[in-house]
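Minimal example, chain plus FE2/S2 (inorganic) cluster.
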Amino acid sequence: MPMDLDCAAGCPLTAPQPIAPFDFPVGQVRRVAPVGDDGDVDETRRNILKLAGVGALVLAGGGLGAAALQYAQPPVVGLTSYPRVQLIDADGRPLTIAAVEQEYSVDTSDLFIFNYPLRNEPNFFLNLSPANGQAPSPTNPGKWNAPGGIGTHGSILGYSAICQHLGCPAPAISYYPPGTCPKTFDNGALPFYIHCSCHGSTYDVTNRAANLTGPAVLPLPQVVFDTDSAGNIFAVGLNGPPVNGHLNSLQGDYGVASTVQLTRETPIILCSFPA
Ligand code: FES
């Protein structure tokens, strides 16, 4: 006896209903919820919006990065112009021309150093006059009327005390009075100079600290001095190349005060000169 296959339209035993074919090509994306009139998604517009979002994140990240760098790299400190700074002697008295010509000479073996114009820019303070007050000669070493010199005989000078080679500071770079080392220059007429014990650079104190021996190839910056009617000495500028280690001599630290005191240091002497 045949089975009764009569059942409702939804009965699983009824003949399979045809499946409606996809009405869009394979690979085309459709939005589930209809948007606008046709419900299609504008993929170009979506991608542009995605890119804009990514760009905004990148810009925001860049801004944060820049802000972080500001803290990682403190802003460069320095001065906008050279200050007028009065020099104070190592004993605390204002440094005058008269005092210098009495107390300092080409034979002064201790180093006298002052910082100018920044706190981390040391300079030599020198008087190249012979100690006996006589004019310099081959037998009486010294120098009058040196370029940039001040005082009665133009013999008072200041030079950067940071070597122009790799930046060794005083006292590794030192002033060498006559007779300190056997080495002389200008056929013996120049037995005093600034010499760096780090690698042997030597500078001519009588001529704007020009190079006498390498490896340094630049002269030392020279301090510009001025005086008032009482003979007080002021540093008012630097000439020559920038102080070694500074993009320019006015940037890289805070400026010194309106007065700066000389400090006394013991030189490091090494009579070693490049061949
Ligand atoms: S740092 Fe002075 S010679 Fe090298």
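The radius of gyration is 40 Å. Residues 163, 165-168, 173, 196, 198-201, 215-216 surround FE2/S2 (inorganic) cluster (CB under 6 Å).
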